[in-house]
Structures are given as structure tokens and as C-alpha cells.
Design brief:
The complex is a heterodimer of chains A (about 450) and B (about 475). Chain A has 23 helices and 9 strands. Chain A is mainly α. In chain A, strand 2, helix 11 and strand 3 form a beta-alpha-beta unit. Chain A is globular, with a radius of gyration of 23 Å. Chain B has 4 domains: about 90 residues, 2-Layer Sandwich (Uridine Diphospho-n-acetylenolpyruvylglucosamine Reductase, domain 2), CATH 3.30.43; about 120 residues, Uridine Diphospho-n-acetylenolpyruvylglucosamine Reductase, domain 3, CATH 3.30.465; about 190 residues, Vanillyl-alcohol Oxidase, Chain A, domain 3 (3-Layer(aba) Sandwich), CATH 3.40.462.10; about 50 residues, no CATH class. Chain B is globular and about 70 Å long. Chain B contains 16 helices and 19 strands. The chains are: A mainly alpha (about 450), B alpha+beta (about 475). The complex binds flavin-adenine dinucleotide and iron/sulfur cluster (2 copies).
């Protein structure tokens, strides 16, 4: 073995007692040591595939984090840019043989960067408004929803968008909001059908409506609840609004913890009232993946920590409740679908990479009578929505989607199915910009009408 | 680095094609062998052969050393940057230019990922046969440079047997187009000599590869053994009986445990001391006949459990376990040193035992996987790079293993290349005259020795080759001389 004098010797243990103290809030150093630098993840990373930059790959980002903790690089503008460029799609986790927990590492790094950042007053105000005021409040969300609809209906949105800069672009990228009646919230309790002998055995569920979903795609929530009720589940709808996933991914960990606490506490109260352990479910993949992390997020919380861990262990995607029933024959989708033409399923990142759910949606789709399915070879690759990424970095978001639009066009699919509101919006915008004739729907919208009750 | 040169390069490559300074350079400091590192002066990301050639000309004029880089999955420090040098990365050259099913070939840019090439060929019932375990990430250019192998190369042969043409950007920026496939080239076989040259002769920008027909039937068998010996002996028996499996892979106990704890859990029994993966390819009849003979040998050598993959999904899972083995080891140790030893197949069993002994004596944890069919073993030694004493013991063990291999009539590297890591091994294996000849060949391509300097050939600053052959080598060469 010859190292040659120009090469650094193997890292020595740095002499100070806690050499990385300066970066504790920026880098999860222990987790970074799990990476063995094999590079197996890099070609699956959308930002590396586009840029070709090692520093925009998972291995490169971990390398940078580690080097920052070891004081070998500054957490400077270049560093921050590569971290911001990441989609937190967690594709890298799915392929990493060493089990590196990239998503969690990135949450800490984003949080650390945010607290070091000197943002302009206007930007700080916008973040404060978005993260602290609007997302956690149903009232504020309703207000924004109603105003947006008003602007869309009157054409003001199109008129003013160019003058509004980033906000204008965001406004224009929104799909047409449905009228108020379709944006109505769900009833707090929805009783399951009791038409089979063993239907009492179906566990009762605790569902999150989410922050944006009711405003943008209210009918998706309705379809989901109807589908679950028709399968014999009671569904309790939580009053909590936002799960905090967007906060956690964008450097607002404290607020994310606060929202998690609110949600877990409501769940505990509801379980007590019902005298049963309600199963937390969601139909939005981004929320689902984050709910499964509550245990870790609140690990140090004396009051809520244990409940959060129990809660996280129970979280399911809604499709996971129905697919085993299809498999064992206790649930049948009998009415033929009204969808014509081939249908393609696109795995939301936080469903396949974040929650490891890949088969259940496919089982449901396969069970729909008369549905013609095509596979997309890159269905597990991010569409570029990535929470609010496509709003913050529209050009990058579109570049990430571009190759997938091509796959979609080549597949001949006439309907694209996904299960996350952000992905739905991103696909809608992309398909519109290309002038393609493809519908975008949530899985529940396809499944529910085929259940004959 | 000279500002005028940077400006000129930026002009050629555009803003996104050049990483000129700052923290973005740091992740390029090493390849898969993280213990060796050096930050490059600059990284260039050309998109076309023309851009690469133009950049290379500018660098030649300025006398700047160049290190080619694919995905940086190499394990011998081949892509580690050098003092005062720039890295040319092929990461943005990932177009599949042509798939020609009738000609059974494909033409790709050298940055195309190995697995993407196979995916592009799949609709035609074809695949690219060399399948390094890193195939989901490593590039065809890197494969060419390392003459990479993989589990199925036992039957299909390593990279060099699948390369039909190359486009090479030479050290002075000249483009050498050898892409027209020639079944029998007149003159010297330039392609043959380029494959495996580890980036020291030039930069490959396009590759024409042979595609192989997907066999009608593939069968994957998993045999579980109570000890490594039974697995090794089965392999020897199969080869002695002239059976031709397409792949023969052995995993030992620690590896099995690591794999089963990872995302690549393949369902290997966690208590097994060794598993042997055997794959058979061919017509239904061929596979059926061979399979019977193979099973008989496995049973006779004491396999305690035999499994046949029932469907493609199960087969993929069994292989995912093997291919993810190295990474999965990351779960049981902070760092991993992958040795790449190759011995004549008949010595495999002894070599395995010696490796275990060497590590035991140094109190090192060892997990071994091997391409048993090729006599190529990868002892993976666990360590923590922060423990300096352990690092020392690992390097010592690596050296001992190399010496044992050479003494057993083997070679320095099965497939990971010499790079920086095994320079000293070259001294041990070759005599002065051998190395001098290699240097002359190299100088014919790159007289200024600007391409990946200091790799592959142990050359001192004064350009004199240093050697230090082992006693065994001198004796072997003397004997060979006496014979001839
Ligand atoms: C988990 C894991 C498993 C592996 N399994 C195997 C295996 O089964 N078989 C095997 O053979 N190897 C294996 N390897 C080693 C490695 O993947 C191979 O050597 C691979 O071919 C390297 O390709 P790369 O694109 O990553 O090249 P890099 O690591 O980037 O470069 C390797 C060498 O090639 C040179 N090079 C790269 N591109 C070019 C180019 N375009 N022109 C000229 N020179 C170039 C570089 O200078 C360097 O010397 C494994 C590695 C890992 C991490
Ligand atoms: S696959 Fe995992 S261990 Fe390998 S480089 Fe990527 S993050 Fe690190
Ligand atoms: S989370 Fe996605 S974008 Fe970020 S490093 Fe991993 S694969 Fe790349």
C-alpha cells in the first residue's frame, strides 16, 4: 500500500474533546459515518443525473456534510446551494446498501442552514406567513383558497401573476381550484358499512385531511373516505391541519415538532374517547412518510415522545388497508371503471422511498375491472414537486420532470395516477405546458367508483 | 490555476460544465477508496467528444495533468485527483447513441451507466454481459478503464471481450476514432491495449459494445454449507467436471449476516457458514442436464440446503443480496477495506484460509465474498478510519494478502485495478525490465505522462521505475528463462 506523500494520511481523530461541536446543529455526524462512499446511490439521484456534479449527489452531499463537521469546508453559499438543490426525495435511501438515513440527515442540515442564513426582511416575512400562519391554520388556508379561486375565476390571477414575481409563478402553477362546495371539509365521523359478517373486526381509522389537499383536491379526500367506509372501516377525521412535513423539509424543525405534538395529542384523545387504538392513515404520501417519522422527531420529548413512537408505528397509507383485502378475496372491486385508455401509475417518492409502499397501489389498480395499465420505467424517480420545491425552484422542478414527461408520452398512457397532491399539481402543470392530453388523478378517485355497495 | 485557462475552458464548456473552486470540489477528493484523497484544482464536465477534446488541447498547452472520472466507484484510487491536476468527469456524457439489434451492438457515450445500457438493450432481448456489482452506478468508460468483471464474467468474459470500438481523446487533444468495429484489425490492436489502462493512456468518450442475447432459460441455485470448504470444493468439482455455470459466487457468514440486515435482504439463512450461488444459462435442455449434475456435486460436498429461484423476482432478490454485499457491510463497520485477490482456482481454498489467519492474527474482522469461478476473492476487512492503529493493521493485512497471492501464482488484482492502492504490489510482481516496457508503451500514447500520473505504474518523480520484486518472482522468472 503506497499512499504517496501528496495524499492525506487516513483521518486522525482530531485532538479536541468535541471537534464537531460547532456543527452539531448542522450535521448529523454519527449518521454521516454510516456512508461507506461506495457511490451506488449516485446514478439514482435526479439532481446528479441532471447536473453531473458529485456535490449534487447523495454521496457528495454527505461528503460535504461530513467535511463541514470536520472543518474541512465552510458551510458557505455553495454548500447551501447543493443542499437546497436536493429534492429530499429519498431515492438514495432505497438503493443504499448501508442503510444511510439521508432524509433525516438533510432535515437537520436544512434546519442548521436556515438558522445561519441572513434572509431579507421580505423573505423572512414570506416564510413566517407561509410556515407559521397559513399552513397550520384552517381558517387562513380557507381564506387563501377562496381568494385564489376568486382571482382564477375573474381572470385576475392571469393578469397580476407577472407582477407578483415568485408568488405570481406559484399562483399560475396552481390548478383551477374547485368551487367552495367541493372544498367543504369532511364530517368528523364517517361510519363504515356493516354489510359483512366480520366487518366489526375492521379497525377504526384516524385520517388527516391535510393542509392543501382540501383546498386543491377536496374530492380526493371524499373518495378516500368513501372507499374506506365502503370497505367497512369507521373513519375519524382529525381536526389538526398540517402534519409539518413541509416545515421539517425546509429548515423549520421547531415548528415541525410543534405541529407533530398537536397531532399526536389529538390522536391520543380520540383513541381514549373511542376506547380503541385508531390507526392513523393518510392518502398524501408526503404526509405519510413524515407521520412515520414522528417517533424520531419527538424522541426527546418527555410529554409526547412515547405516544409519538406508538403513533408512528401504526401509520399506514390508505392503500395498505385495502390491498390485503383484495388479496384475500374479502374485498372486490366489481363495477367496471369509466376510465378509458391506458393508465400509468407513478410512485410518489415518499410512498415508495419514504414508506416502502410499492405493491399495494398496484394491487388495487390491477383489481379494477376493465383497467388497462402500462408501466413507466422511471416511476420511482422524483417528478420534481418535492413538497414546495417546485414553487421555490420552478426551473429545477421542471428540469427534473422533463425526462418523466417523455417517458409518459412514449408509454401512450391517457391517465396518470399518483397519490400526493404536490405530485398531482406538478404533473398537471407539466402536462399542460407540453400540451399533452393526459388526465391526472389520485388513486382513490379510480378505486372508489368501482366498489359496488 | 491560471485565470486565462479557466476562462478559455469556461468558454468551451459553459457555466454548468466547470466546477472551478470552492466546497464543490471537495467531494471529488476520492473515489470508492475513501482513505486516499486529494482535492482537484478543477473539475470539467464536457457533454460531447468535441468539448472534451477542445478542453484537453487547452490543458495540454498549459501542461496540466488530467484524471478521468466516471462514477467514482473505483476501489483502488484510480480516480483520485493528483497534485496540480484537473478531473474530467464523464457524468454529463450519458447518451445511448445507438442500439443496433441486428448487429448486436450498441454505441454509447462513455458516461452511460452500465445498468442503463442493459436497460436500453432489453427491449431487443439483448443485454450487456459484464455486470460489476456496482453496475447500477458505474460507467462504461470506467469499466473500460478498469477492464471490469462481474459475477457473470465467468462465462461471458470481462469487459475487454465486449468492446468493439472506442473513441479516445488523447493527451494532446487529438481524437482517435476507433469506433468502426473491425473483426480482425490490421496492425496493432489498439483497443485491446487500451482496455484496462486505468486512464493512463487517454480519455474514452464513446464506446461501441457487443450485446449478448438474453438466454432462453436462466436458473439460479442457492446452496447453503456448514463451512467454506464445502463451497470451495464444489466449485473445483464443477470445473473439473467441465460444467459451465455462468456464475459461481460464494458469501461467508459475516457477509450473509450483513446482507440480511440491509435493504438487500435476500433470504439467505442467517445461520449458514457459507452460501454458494450458482447460475446456469442456456437452452431448457442444457440447463436441465447441467442442473442435475451441479445438484449432485453440491449434495456430495455437503450442502445442507438447496434452493432454486422460482421466478425472476426471487432470482433478482438472490442477486441483489450478492451485489449489495459490499455496501451492506457498511452496517457492521464504519469503514471497509476491499482487497481484490486472485489466485489459481485450485488454490482458492488455501487462500481463503490464509486470509482468515492473517486477519485473525491482527485482530481484524473479515467478511469474504468471492467470484469463485474466477479464483477472485474479495476479503472485506472492517475498520474505523479514526483508529490509526487499526488502519495500520488493515494496510499490513492487505499487503500480506497480496504477497500470499503472488506467492501462490496469482495476481495483484482480479478486477479493481492497481490505481494508487497497489502500486507497491507492482514492484513486487514485476521486474525492472517488465515495468520499463510498460512505461514505453505508455509513453507512446502520452509522452508527457499527464494522463492519470502516478497510477498503475510505480514511477518516481525522476521518472525512473522502481521495483522490489518478491523472491518468488525472481525465482519464477529465472525458471521461465531457463525453460525457454
Ligand atoms: C460496491 C462496489 C462493487 C464493485 N463491484 C465490482 C465488480 O464486481 N467488478 C469490478 O470489476 N469492479 C467492481 N467495483 C469497482 C468499480 O465499480 C469498477 O472498477 C468500475 O468499473 C469503475 O467505474 P466508474 O465509472 O465508477 O469509474 P471511476 O471509479 O470513476 O474510475 C475508475 C478508473 O477509470 C478511469 N476512468 C474513468 N472513466 C474514464 C474514461 N472515460 N476514460 C479514461 N479513463 C477513465 C479513472 O481515471 C480511474 O482510473 C465495485 C465497486 C463498488 C463500490
Ligand atoms: S449508497 Fe449509501 S453508503 Fe454508498 S455512497 Fe451512497 S449513501 Fe453512501
Ligand atoms: S434525496 Fe433525492 S435529490 Fe436528495 S440526494 Fe437523495 S436522491 Fe438526490
Amino acid at each position: 500500500m503506497s499512499t504517496g506523500k501528496e495524499f492525506a494520511p487516513p483521518d486522525a481523530t482530531p485532538p479536541q474533546a468535541d471537534p464537531i461541536a460547532h456543527a452539531r446543529d448542522l450535521v448529523d455526524y454519527a449518521a454521516s459515518l454510516d456512508c461507506i462512499h461506495c457511490g451506488l446511490c449516485i446514478s439514482s439521484c435526479p439532481t446528479y443525473r441532471i447536473s453531473g456534479r458529485e456535490s449534487a449527489s447523495p454521496r457528495g452531499r454527505i461528503h460535504l456534510m461530513r467535511a463541514a463537521a470536520e472543518s474541512r469546508v465552510e458551510a458557505d453559499a455553495d454548500f447551501a446551494e447543493e443542499m437546497d438543490y436536493c429534492l429530499v426525495c429519498r431515492n438514495c435511501e432505497s438503493v443504499c446498501p448501508a442503510g444511510v438515513q439521508f432524509g433525516r440527515m438533510m432535515e437537520l442540515t436544512r434546519d442548521g442552514l436556515e438558522s445561519r442564513r441572513q434572509r431579507k426582511l421580505s423573505a423572512r416575512l414570506a416564510r413566517w406567513l407561509g410556515f407559521r400562519i397559513v399552513l397550520p391554520s384552517r381558517l387562513a388556508l380557507r381564506l387563501v383558497g377562496t381568494l385564489t379561486r376568486l382571482m382564477q375565476v375573474t381572470g385576475l390571477a392571469r393578469m397580476f401573476a407577472p407582477a407578483l414575481g415568485a408568488a405570481g409563478r406559484a399562483l399560475q402553477s396552481l390548478p383551477a381550484l374547485p368551487p367552495a362546495r367541493e372544498r367543504a371539509l369532511l364530517p368528523a365521523r364517517n361510519r363504515g358499512l356493516r354489510n359483512t359478517g366480520d366487518s366489526d373486526a375492521r379497525p377504526a381509522l384516524f385520517m388527516l385531511e391535510g393542509c392543501a389537499q382540501p383546498e386543491l383536491f377536496g374530492h380526493v379526500n371524499r373518495s378516500t373516505v368513501d372507499a374506506l367506509c365502503a370497505a367497512g372501516h369507521d373513519v375519524h377525521v382529525a381536526r389538526a391541519v398540517c402534519c409539518g412535513a413541509l416545515h421539517a423539509h425546509n429548515g423549520e424543525l421547531d415548528q415541525a415538532r410543534q405541529l407533530a405534538r398537536i397531532y399526536v395529542q389529538e390522536w391520543v384523545r380520540s383513541c381514549a374517547a373511542e376506547g380503541a387504538e385508531l390507526i392513523p392513515i393518510t392518502n398524501a404520501s408526503g404526509c405519510g412518510a413524515h407521520l412515520r417519522e414522528y417517533g424520531e422527531l419527538l424522541a426527546g420529548d418527555a410529554q409526547c415522545g412515547a405516544d409519538a413512537a406508538r403513533f408512528s408505528a401504526l401509520v399506514r397509507d390508505w392503500s395498505e388497508l385495502l390491498s390485503p383485502r383484495i388479496a384475500d378475496g374479502s374485498l372486490k372491486l366489481t363495477a367496471p371503471t369509466n376510465v378509458s385508455g391506458p393508465v400509468a401509475w407513478d410512485d410518489p417518492c415518499h410512498l415508495c422511498h419514504g414508506q416502502g409502499v410499492r405493491e399495494d397501489p398496484r394491487v388495487l389498480l390491477k383489481a379494477i375491472p376493465g383497467l388497462e395499465q402500462v408501466e413507466l420505467h422511471d416511476s420511482e424517480s422524483c417528478c420534481g414537486s418535492a413538497g414546495i420545491y417546485s414553487l421555490l425552484r420552478p426551473a429545477d422542478g421542471a428540469a427534473i420532470l422533463a425526462p418523466k414527461l417523455e417517458t409518459l408520452a412514449n408509454s401512450g398512457a391517457r391517465t396518470l395516477v399518483t397519490s400526493n397532491p404536490g405530485c398531482q399539481m406538478q404533473w398537471l402543470a407539466g402536462i399542460r405546458s407540453k400540451g399533452m392530453d393526459v388526465r391526472v388523478v389520485h388513486l382513490a378517485e379510480l378505486v372508489q367508483p368501482t366498489q359496488r355497495t | 490555476m491560471d485565470a486565462a485557462l479557466i476562462a478559455a475552458l469556461r468558454n468551451v464548456l459553459g457555466e454548468a460544465g466547470l466546477v472551478g473552486s470552492g466546497s464543490r470540489l471537495v467531494p471529488y477528493e476520492s473515489d470508492g477508496l475513501a482513505m486516499l484523497r486529494h482535492t482537484p484544482e478543477m473539475v470539467l464536465l464536457p457533454r460531447t467528444t468535441a468539448e472534451a477534446a477542445h478542453s484537453m488541447r487547452l490543458l495540454a498547452e498549459a501542461g496540466v495533468p488530467v484524471v478521468g472520472r466516471g462514477a467514482g466507484t473505483g476501489l483502488s484510487g484510480g480516480a483520485t485527483p493528483v497534485e496540480g491536476g484537473v478531473v474530467i468527469s464523464l457524468a454529463r456524457m450519458r447518451d445511448v447513441l445507438e442500439v443496433d439489434p441486428a448487429g448486436r451492438l450498441a454505441r454509447v457515450q462513455a458516461g452511460v451507466v452500465n445498468a442503463d445500457l442493459t436497460r436500453a438493450a432489453a427491449p431487443h432481448g439483448l443485454f450487456y454481459a459484464p455486470d460489476p456489482s456496482s453496475q447500477m452506478a458505474c460507467t462504461i468508460g470506467g469499466n473500460v478503464a478498469e477492464n471490469s468483471g462481474g459475477p457473470h464474467c465467468f462465462m461471458h468474459g470481462s469487459t475487454t471481450r465486449h468492446i468493439l470500438g472506442l473513441v479516445i481523446v488523447c493527451a494532446d487533444g487529438e481524437v482517435l476514432d476507433l469506433s468502426e468495429p473491425q473483426p480482425d484489425p490490421s496492425g496493432y490492436d489498439l483497443i485491446g491495449s487500451f482496455v484496462g489502462s486505468e486512464g493512463t493512456l487517454g480519455l474514452v468518450t464513446e464506446v461501441t459494445v457487443k450485446l449478448t442475447r438474453v438466454p432462453p432459460v436462466t436458473e439460479t441455485l442457492l446452496a447453503v454449507f456448514p463451512g467454506l470448504d464445502g463451497a470451495c470444493d464444489s466449485v473445483s468439482d464443477m470445473i473439473a467436471a467441465r460444467l459451465e455455470p455462468s456464475a459461481l459466487e460464494i458469501l461467508d457468514r459475516l457477509t450473509i449476516q450483513a446482507v440480511e440486515a440491509s435493504v438487500f435482504a435476500a433470504g439467505y439463512p442467517k445461520t449458514a457458514e457459507a452460501v454458494l450461488l450458482v447460475e446456469l444459462e442456456g437452452s431448457a435442455l442444457e440447463v436441465d442436464v447441467t442442473s442435475k449434475d451441479v445438484l449432485a456435486i453440491l449434495e456430495q460436498r455437503g450442502a445442507i440446503e438447496l434452493r432454486k429461484a422460482r421466478d425472476p423476482l426471487e432470482r433478482r432478490k438472490l442477486w441483489a443480496g450478492r451485489k449489495g454485499a459490499f455496501g451492506a457491510m457498511g452496517r457492521i463497520a464504519p469503514d471497509l477495506y476491499v482487497a481484490d485477490a486472485v489466485v489459481p482456482r485450485t488454490k482458492l481454498r488455501r487462500m481463503v484460509a490464509r486470509t482468515a489467519e492473517i486477519c485473525r492474527e491482527r485482530n481484524l474482522r473479515l467478511a469474504t465474498v468471492f467470484h469463485a469461478g474466477d479464483g477472485n476473492l474479495h476479503p472485506n476487512i472492517c475498520y474505523d478510519r479514526r483508529d490509526l492503529d487499526e488502519v495500520k493493521r488493515v494496510l499490513e493485512a492487505g499487503r500480506m494478502i497480496l504477497q500470499e497471492c503472488i506467492a501462490a501464482g496469482g495476481s495483484l488484482t482480479g478486477e479493481h485495478g492497481v490505481g494508487l492502492e497497489k502500486l507497491e504490489g507492482m514492484d513486487m510482481l514485476f521486474k525492472q525490465a517488465d515495468l520499463a516496457t510498460m512505461c514505453r508503451m505508455r509513453d507512446a500514447w502520452d509522452p508527457e505522462r499527464r494522463m492519470n500520473p502516478g497510477k498503475l505504474l510505480p514511477v518516481r518523480a525522476c521518472r525512473e521505475v522502481r521495483t522490489n520484486p518478491l523472491p518468488g518472482v525472481e525465482a519464477r522468472d529465472a525458471a521461465a528463462g531457463a525453460e525457454s
